[in-house]
Amino acid sequence: MKLTKLKSYFPIFDWGQSYNKHAFSNDMIAAVIVTIMLIPQSLAYALLAGLPAEMGLYASIAPIILYAIFGTSRALAVGPVAVVSLMTAAAIGNIAEVGTMGYAVAAITLAGLSGVILLLMGVFKLGFLANFLSHPVIAGFITASGVLIAASQLKHILGIDAHGHTLLELLSSLFTHLPETNYKTLALGVSATLFLFWVRKGLKPALLKLGLSTRIANILTKIGPIAAIVTTTLIVWGYDFAAQGVRIVGDVPQALPPLTLPSFSPELLSTLLIPALLISVIGFVESISVAQTLAAKKRQRIEPNQELIGLGAANIGASLTGGFPVTGGFSRSVVNFDAGAETPAAGAFTAIGLAIAAVSLTPLIYFLPKATLAATIIVAVLSLVDFGILKKTWVYSKTDFVAVATTILLTLIFGVEIGVSVGVVLSIALFLYKTSRPHIAEVGLVPDSQHFRNIHRHKVITDPQLLTIRIDESLYFANARFLEDYIYDRVVGDCHIKHLVLMCSAVNEIDMSALESLEAINTRLHDLGIKLHLSEVKGPVTDKLKHAHFWQELTGEIFLSQYDAYKKLAPDEAIKNFNHFI
Amino acid sequence: MKLTKLKSYFPIFDWGQSYNKHAFSNDMIAAVIVTIMLIPQSLAYALLAGLPAEMGLYASIAPIILYAIFGTSRALAVGPVAVVSLMTAAAIGNIAEVGTMGYAVAAITLAGLSGVILLLMGVFKLGFLANFLSHPVIAGFITASGVLIAASQLKHILGIDAHGHTLLELLSSLFTHLPETNYKTLALGVSATLFLFWVRKGLKPALLKLGLSTRIANILTKIGPIAAIVTTTLIVWGYDFAAQGVRIVGDVPQALPPLTLPSFSPELLSTLLIPALLISVIGFVESISVAQTLAAKKRQRIEPNQELIGLGAANIGASLTGGFPVTGGFSRSVVNFDAGAETPAAGAFTAIGLAIAAVSLTPLIYFLPKATLAATIIVAVLSLVDFGILKKTWVYSKTDFVAVATTILLTLIFGVEIGVSVGVVLSIALFLYKTSRPHIAEVGLVPDSQHFRNIHRHKVITDPQLLTIRIDESLYFANARFLEDYIYDRVVGDCHIKHLVLMCSAVNEIDMSALESLEAINTRLHDLGIKLHLSEVKGPVTDKLKHAHFWQELTGEIFLSQYDAYKKLAPDEAIKNFNHFI
Fold this sequence. Notes:
Helix content of chain A: 55-70%
Mean pLDDT of chain A: 87
Strand content of chain A: 5-15%
Distance between the termini of chain A: 64 Å
Largest interface: A-B, 64 and 64 residues
Strand order of the largest sheet of chain A: 4-3-6-7-8-9
Radius of gyration of chain A: 31 Å
Oligomer: homodimer
Number of strands of chain A: 10
Number of domains of chain A: 2
Number of helices of chain A: 24
């Protein structure tokens, strides 16, 4: 019993018990591949966040190990990712100057704060909050972020200075500095970009043609970028491009991750609180989507609240070892999965690999041009950009379209924080607005059945004395008055009506405000000589209504099914109408 | 055609055309009664707002006339009301010192800003926003405000200084100054309070016993407070109580309302924006509830968006004539109605009466003790206090109870602005939370019918191969994942299931996120050898689904009724189970 509890908090005890040689060798192979892929990616995302390259490596070591202990996904690889790195840059860009000590401290603090938020959300089981980010808002946000990230990297491809956190700022800054373009950098950057696009699209088919197995071809494709890194580094070294203005990564300390502490300045913490919250939620959503996609393939289960704890621990780890905010990344996790990782131990081995890289390989990247890292980022993020979501939502649901379009526009114009916040609030507001003006159908009996449908859509039988209204929404404060107005408008002037049945098959809740409206409707209809009945009231709603006076005061009856109501209240076949649907 | 348009913007042209001598005399009588009642009330609410007494009169003159032109209610009396006066005091109390010029200017500005907000809400037809204040939140807020108002007036009854905008501040301030109590003031205040309570409860039965008609008794009861005003004023004058520390109204300028301008200081406007918004919404909700209650009695209609324009004009009027925020008040409107007012002209006559009072009667109230005005306020607001709402919601709905209890507590502890804001946000959040975890029922066929109900509540027929799930909520982003998890958990390990029917009678909307979840469910069930079907999909939902790939990719069918699905998918009578409800 106790062990089960322990396992639920430390999933490591779950898979650790059955760990064997076979799993070990699979995990080792996966780790080597992922390590090779992670080195350039980690450096690149540090660059994107405006931080020294080595912080990208540091952010990939401790977090991976901590996630392996606390996380529930067996394939998720935790570390710096594109969107979170962009959000980090946006959050701390206004607090400190890029390249200063204050900037790095702010990044470390942001990771710590975000870790605490994630941990608390996990402990208090608030994982469900992430459900309030609708798919279209996330898709729109990721697309717009991809565009922003690509735009932010153009300066490295051109070899110029430019800055900004919105598309307009970035483009105008790029345009101003365009005359300073360094053509050697541009040549390197463009070649690297084109090569990387080819690796992504053309390498795999080419390798398969050469007779390699799909798995090997997949892995070579994923680590292909290393070729670009090596080649461009050699060119810069061989032709002494650094002296000709090509910017390079330069000195990277040859050391294990340092022990660091986040700042506890109340001022800094309060400034970072909202960005940290957004980074936590966005990071969690990204991570859990990846984890669930991969888990579904192997029929494993992901526990969202435990994931929050795993990611929280990873971020706190990042802030204590010179890193910056991290989450479960899509591309690295897929590589890990494709490379055959069986348990989170693969992650731990990757961490060891990266630690070895941090102490021994950093001199090798001295001459690595920043343009190559920028090319890596651009190629990676452009795969995230999908404006197709605009067309898809336009066709299916205008409400979702408005949410996506607003999120994309605001993210591009005002930056990531405003974009995603307004997107979330707007999608909730649109939902509330819809529920405040529910669809209401007048229904009649479908011939030769006991089924009732909208008189305007189906051929149905009705009775002039019996008006049946189906309200297609839970009744609550936002639509209580709407229902009242609708009913008064409908019955005024129709002197045939003797019975009004509210068909409640779609009413999942009647709150206090709606109950008061129903009482008012009951009284007012009584004054007009009309009896109010209810039909098909659900169990949970009935349970509540029984506690209310309304139950006794109702002038009519409560019928189990609409057909029962119809049989009782409209028995006279002679006067029935047969409606033809329009 | 044009006249109709004109009438809808200026309802005065509607009733103005048919105005006659009979209506005129009724309106005049009502105006005289209301004027008498409004004088002490207006002075008292100015006191409550921390403003000079004459501003209460000014706030009752121009607003009444403007509402008569633009408003749609024929009985609503616009002017200062208790809750809005309290909110005014809370809003400007932190900006300026009571009694200073800055304080009055802030009040005038608040009225102007609130007027502009109301006007804009009316023009953009945003009246529906008021529906998002649930009845329990309003009831809780009014109750807590009543307590706060009564507590804020105790200092006048005791004749001491005290201040604060929360219950704790008020009580501790009262306690500190308690030794300074002026016993003459206390005697006057307590007597006035007891007398006014008696007028409210005991006067009408006494008058009826004397043989007066109900109408006359009602009117005398409403203007009874005048007796307290006159008597206490005479006592203070006759015994020279003012020299013995009894605080009096003192000098009130003998003049028509002055022309004033609100401040256009951006700093002041931005500080007042949120309070003005809250005052506008609360004032609108109070006003429209009163207007609709009275209109229902005479079968007249209230147009919420035109009401916003009427109240907006009234508040702008208040800010241009030395007033403070106003709205349609309950007690004054009821008097107006009971006194037989037929058209808004009654309001205009009341305004004339108050203007006469402002230029000629103000010297008479020089000796009016503030304690009497405080007694008027206390007796008026204690009728608003109804803690019964706590019990009522506790019995009916725990969610509503949480919303009411939180609103009451926060209003008392942190003041009106936080109380009502958190109440509104909380009630919306609770609604969203409920919809994010919908009730899901497994259903079976009710014997001898075509009706399907919850297997745990009813005796129903089921088939092991056919699982029918009724989701009692619209499917949208907040519950899309919940549905996925529920279905996977339910089908895993139940190898009998061949068909899963989602009964959509309560599904009023399937948004893009939920559509993607349904696609995932469809694919996943297909892998498990289970077909997914839908039944009783509503017209508007069907219309949208037809545009989606899901419609083609669905492994099963879409049935008009659940009974059709049952007939087709569970034809074999031999294997059916008969469930006994628990």
